[in-house]
Write a structure and sequence with these properties.
This protein is α+β, with helices and mostly antiparallel strands. The protein is about 50% helix and about 25% strand. Strands 2-1-5-4-3 form a five-stranded antiparallel β-sheet, sandwiched between helices. Helix 10 runs antiparallel to helix 11, helix 10 packs across helix 15 and helix 13 runs parallel beside helix 14. The chain is rod-shaped.
Length: about 475
């Protein structure tokens, strides 16, 4: 009796819907949880069968009674159910024959699994969408369990590899990896999957058709609600065409570098030839024409002394001729200096730079700040003449285009480099523009710099002025 009382107490306080019937399947007791679930009152259930309550299909009830009689129990029968409140749910029914006070009864346990069924349907729908997407995706898609064992591959994956679905499930994908890549890839995959880390790799495969393909593989862990990794999902993409294009691009780049190197060598040679020609022409003008004019001046001066003419006009002509020859000699000296400043060879780069700056200041009448911390002793002649020509071109640009009031020039050594900076406060220009009036002069500066494996930085903005910095290695 005490056990029956404990049972009934548990029966009525259970969070699971419970109903008790007699041997004829008429309700003898029902708990409040099930009454609420079905939308019934206790008074209208006692003494009634499931069919009489009108809540269940009579044929189903009849079949259920038949199975209960034969087996003495039923377990986990899913059934769609509509309550009196027209609420549609899915219930899970289990029943078993029991005896209370020596009387045969049937105990039913009824659970509302509507939320569970809805979640399952959502998962099933999500899985269907995934499978549909995977089957039509242009990339290979695969899934594994938490240990990295393959559990799914799509059609594109099988097409890439040439393996069947069954072969993929057996881990045959490892055998299609190129022998030179296999050990590293397999070890890397096992390491990543055991650590629960994302995996990314690019490797070669040889499919069943014997084709060598480059693939890009990615995989990320799938994490369950408990925070534990349940598996991996990943993709493989055929990047063979991209790799081939990159290889062609690299070859083209190498050829271009070779051609660029050849052009730079040619440009350097031509520049050297031009400097040699300038030196030759300067020497010939100085030695031949300069000496001839000097001799002519001396002869005219001698004639003037010997021929003392009474006519002042004749004497003036002698003076004019002498002055004209002297002016020609000065012009020749200027031309010779422009062609090849002899002081670079005689006195060094720093002396030539000082002379050039002084001449420029006199010609334009503007303030020039000059700082030189560079020891020019032992500098290579090619570097010396190139730096001088770069300075000349920079100053020429300032004279022609800048309209500057102040110019600053700095020559310093930093490590194994010589740095030349020429800055003005002129009108400036848009250094990002493709075309401007400074183009050829600046190209000449850049070309001379690059020939010596140096760097050239030109910074300018309208109304701000221009700063040209050249860095040339001394080695």
């Amino acid at each position: 009796m005490e056990a029956d009382e404990k049972f009934l107490k548990l029966f009525h306080n259970s969070l699971v819907g419970m109903i008790l019937t007699d041997a004829d399947h008429r309700v003898t007791d029902i708990n409040d949880h099930l009454l609420e679930l079905m939308g019934l009152e206790r008074s209208e259930t006692i003494g009634k069968t499931g069919s009489e309550l009108g809540l269940m299909d009579p044929e189903f009830v009849k079949d259920m009674w038949q199975q209960m009689t034969e087996t003495g129990r039923l377990s986990n029968i899913e059934l769609p159910f509509t309550s009196r409140k027209e609420k549609k749910i899915t219930i899970l029914i289990s029943t078993e024959r029991i005896h209370i006070r020596k009387q045969e009864h049937w105990l039913f346990a009824i659970i509302d699994i509507s939320k569970k069924k809805k979640a399952e349907e959502q998962i099933s729908s999500s899985e269907l969408r995934f499978r549909t997407l995977a089957s039509t995706a242009p990339v290979g898609i695969f899934e594994t369990d938490a240990y990295g064992n393959t559990t799914y591959v799509n059609e594109a994956w099988m097409e890439y590899s040439g393996l069947s679905y069954e072969e993929a499930m057996k881990g045959e994908w490892m055998n299609m990896i190129h022998p030179d890549d296999r050990e590293e890839q397999v070890a890397g995959w096992h390491s990543k999957s055991h650590k629960g880390e994302p995996s990314f790799s690019e490797y070669r495969i040889i499919n069943k058709a014997g084709q060598l393909r480059w693939v890009n593989g990615r995989a990320v862990p799938l994490v369950g609600n408990d925070g534990l990794i349940t598996g991996y999902i990943g993709t493989i993409s055929d990047v063979t065409t991209i790799k081939q294009a990159l290889e062609l691009l690299k070859e083209s780049h190498d050829v271009l570098n070779d051609r660029t190197g050849q052009l730079q060598e040619l440009s350097t040679h031509l520049q050297q030839v031009r400097e040699d020609e300038r030196s030759k022409i300067a020497r010939e003008i100085h030695d031949e024409l300069g000496q001839q004019l000097t001799g002519l001046k001396m002869d005219i001066s001698w004639l003037k002394k010997k021929v003392q003419h009474e006519d002042e006009a004749v004497n003036n002509k002698f003076d004019d001729a002498i002055n004209l020859i002297a002016q020609a000699v000065r012009s020749i000296r200027h031309i010779v200096t422009e062609l090849r400043p002899s002081m670079i060879d005689d006195l060094g780069l720093n002396a030539a730079i000082e002379w050039q700056i002084e001449e420029f200041g006199k010609r334009l009448g503007i303030a020039i700040g000059y700082t030189n911390e560079f020891d020019d002793s032992g500098v290579h002649p090619n570097i010396a003449i190139s730096l001088f020509r770069i300075l000349q071109e920079s100053l020429t640009n300032i004279a022609r285009h800048a309209g500057a009031n102040n110019v600053s020039i700095t020559v310093i050594r930093k490590g194994d480099e010589v740095h030349l900076t020429v800055q003005d406060d002129g009108v400036g220009f848009d250094a990002t523009a493709k075309q401007h009036t400074h183009t050829f002069g600046l190209l000449g500066i850049k070309e001379r710099t690059y020939m010596l494996k140096g760097d050239c930085l030109i910074d300018s903005s309208p109304g701000v002025g221009t700063c040209i910095t050249v860095r040339i290695p001394l080695s």
